[in-house]
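S1.2 Input.
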Amino acid sequence: MTEQGEIRAVTREVHPVPARRHELPYAPAIHVTGPVDMLYVSGMTAAPLYHQHPHVREEHLHAPDIETQVRRAMDKIKMVLETEGLTLRHVVKMTKYLTDMRDLDGMSGVLSEYFGDWKPASTTICVNCLNQPGARVEIEVTAMRPK
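S1.3 Output.
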């Protein structure tokens, strides 16, 4: 707290591979430290975390099945969380974007492999398309570390 009683928070970008930071037009996550330690993880697809912008098609060849796409997205989310010393048990909210709601069961099955009995708050949204041809799912999470 400041002398005026204001609560301050500090934000910083999180990059699992800092040397490749220049390749992204966004941060893979933003870490907020203050009264609550929060991490806001950007949406992840099956594409490589670090890739060229504008997109190069060869970097975005997605597996045709939803299960593989979800696993690839979740592995990147885990990598970002681990960069900050967090696990999937720290995830308090996730938002999932699907291009086809018929993929919901396949996605949910894979997510249960990652989260086990932990059930963060969740929203699933069906969208017309994602930012890469062939991408069928994008997942973003918010994680919290108790002080």
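S1.4 Remarks. The chain has a mean pLDDT of 91.
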